[in-house]
Amino acid sequence: MDIQSSFDIFKYLKELGYLKELKDKLWWPKSRSFEVVVGTILTQQSKWERVEKSLENLKQENMLSLEKLANININLLSTLIKPSGFYNTKAKRLKLLSNNIIKDFGSFDIFREQVDRQWLLLQKGLGKESSDSILCYACEKEFLPVDNYTAKLMKKFGYEFSEYDELREWMEEGILSNLEKVYVLYNEEKSLNEIFARFHGKIVESGKNKIIP
DNA sequence: ACCCAGGTGTTTC
DNA sequence: GAAACACATGGG
């Protein structure tokens, strides 16, 4: 298979017909909500099923909101997110991040509108992938997150990058320079954010399910 | 028993 | 800079 750009991967995954019906059209469960922010930290080096368990625990205790997490007892938070691992570290970072969002933006809605990558990268616990995931799935900005699955997938086709941003820019550029073709593949009109969001989702799902040998 | 998962921060050369 | 290590659970 001849892969010239990320668009060829996009087309290939599209042709597989995988990930057709999504509960959430942006792929990430409860996209646009504060849950995405919580999920990005919880899912680090963990399985999504374990994250769902933690999210359930938080919901059960009525703690799954920006205001509640900003003021939660740290030991309680650790206990509730135990299923997704690294719970002491993640608890500290989640609480601090919630406080910083309130301090610098006042509300989650303002945060969604005004936050930028630079602010996110300054937060303890948010690296490039988590920051881009928040921008893409919580804030609906035009960012294409890349992860280990993306790197592994591209390596299979002979493309390797030493830096996260090099891979991300190459992935974004392949789509941006083939936008007309992308729109032909979709019946309905989609925003660039939605295209990036679903593309990343497909890559993750195809990686998780090992559909590409 | 070992390996991995929708990474990140710190320490050390 | 880049490599090595810590953070931790639970399923295959």
> Helix- and strand-based class?
mainly alpha
Note the total helix count: 13
Shape assignment: globular
According to DSSP, the number of beta strands is: 0
Strand content: under 5%
The CATH class of the largest domain is: Mainly Alpha
H-E order: HHHHHHHHHHHHH
Overall mean pLDDT stands at 95
Poorly predicted regions are none
First and last CA, distance: 13 Å
Looking at the structure, the CATH topology of the largest domain is Endonuclease III, domain 1
Furnish the topology, listing elements before pairings.
Blueprint (H helix, E strand, L loop, with lengths): L5 H10 L18 H9 L5 H13 L5 H6 L2 H7 L6 H19 L2 H7 L2 H6 L5 H11 L9 H9 L7 H13 L2 H7 L6 H17 L5
Helix pairs in contact: 1-11, 2-9, 5-6, 6-7
The chain binds a DNA duplex (13 and 12 nucleotides) through helix 2, helix 3, helix 6, helix 9 and helix 13.
Descriptive account of the structure:
It is a single chain. The protein has 13 helices and no strands. By secondary structure, it is mostly helical. The model has no long low-confidence stretch (mean pLDDT 95). The structure holds a DNA duplex (13 and 12 nucleotides).
Task: Give the tags.
213 residues, Endonuclease Iii, domain 2, Endonuclease III, domain 1, globular, DNA-binding
